[in-house]
Amino acid sequence: MPKHEHVSISVIRRLPRYYRFLGDLMKLGFSRISSQELSQRMGLTASQIRQDLNCFGGFGQQGYGYNVDMLHSELGSIMGTNMSYPVIIVGAGNIGRALAMNINFGATGFRLSAIFDNSPSVIGTTISGLTVMDVSELENYCRENRPKVAVLTIPRAAAPSVVSSLVDLGVKGFWNFSHYDFSVKYKEKGIIVENVHLGDSLMTLCYLIKSAGEE
Amino acid sequence: MPKHEHVSISVIRRLPRYYRFLGDLMKLGFSRISSQELSQRMGLTASQIRQDLNCFGGFGQQGYGYNVDMLHSELGSIMGTNMSYPVIIVGAGNIGRALAMNINFGATGFRLSAIFDNSPSVIGTTISGLTVMDVSELENYCRENRPKVAVLTIPRAAAPSVVSSLVDLGVKGFWNFSHYDFSVKYKEKGIIVENVHLGDSLMTLCYLIKSAGEE
DNA sequence: TAGATTGTTAATCGATTAACAATC
DNA sequence: TAGATTGTTAATCGATTAACAATC
Q1: How many Å separate Cα A7 from the centre of its chain?
Q2: A156: which chain B residues are within 8 Å (Cβ-Cβ)?
Q3: Which tens digit of pLDDT belongs to each residue from A173-198?
Q4: Which of A64, A78, B95, B150 is the 20 to 30 A CA-CA neighbour of B178?
Q5: Residue ranges covered by each domain of chain B
Q6: Mean pLDDT computed over A111-125
Q7: CATH 1.10.10.10 describes domain A9-79
Q8: What topology does CATH give the domain A85-200?
Q9: Chain B residues inside the 8 Å CB shell of A109
């Protein structure tokens, strides 16, 4: 089934939230939901929900609404939660370890396959069932296991060379927690980068707090 | 100086990135930059940069461009990086600890003042210079120290009651890493929530990887 | 002064919301 | 059938881009 071409990023970023709310509704025992009621629960408009969903297909039924289970599973397969793309974590510091232990990679379409670090005190330790490998093994590992995505939890200074070699080794996407900004050339190559700039997020919060106080 | 009223959230979310790039330029020894050159480095349009900055004031000079140091510090004070709002972390699990150790709260307008947990094995341990306190002390602590913001790194199930009491105790903003979705009523009360839904971010990445592969 | 580059207005583009015919 | 609610088209709104006069 060829999905509608070019769905806007705004729509895509709402999908995981729909998915979460539908999962909740399932747990609450709902079997059907109207765009109207979902919109109230989520704090957006019914119109937007219908528009968003219709980017991917007509999942509802006039006069009835949407079947919760069905819509949930449709959204899941649209996003690829049933996939199992191999992922590596590069950088087993605080953040890397916390992600390894906290993120449910399986539920989001991935499979955590290896963790790398360059510190002798960390290499060889076990995190979430995986033994931390030496970054010097990164190249061999990638040639053999072809990870699709790398989680970048390394210091900024280390990022450029690591990214460059990972791209050469076939990594297609990055979940970027480092303070490194990917240059435009990677986007042109079709490399996908999902940035999680925690510092930016916190500064935004600071601005909003400050502005609220100034009113 | 009364800032221009209601700057859109899209603009606000770009400010930290401008700030970062300007900091880099300072380190590289730049003293001036044109919107044109900055736009190329950042991968956006010069027009957008000028529009964004002019939401807050005319920081440039015709024929010259922008003074890097000056613009950097202006943006800093617009965002409030010079503030020192007290912040508490609620939940000293992997993520809470990693944030305590990794985030430069001081550089983003905050001051980490306390960390709470409910697990006896964690209470009393030291993280980043702070002794983890028992959540039972949360109320007293807030009454005495009036934290402005709380970082939520607790399980979802624990969130509703913690949030409710923190709001009653005067907390104005949340940096929310829990899977809890704040209900609309808090927004109506003027509570500010900056969500960091890591699962959503990873699912978005999955979708993008999947779509790229399907082309 | 001439050249460069801003600040700002106008034009375009895209995303959200509203409306309603189709249909379960 | 009547009522409800979708899918979809049209209208609105806001954000981005383009253009250019102002001015350093």
Answers
A1: 17
A2: none
A3: 999 999 999 999 999 899 999 999 99
A4: A78
A5: 9-79, 85-200
A6: 98
A7: yes
A8: Rossmann fold (3.40.50)
A9: 202-203, 206, 210
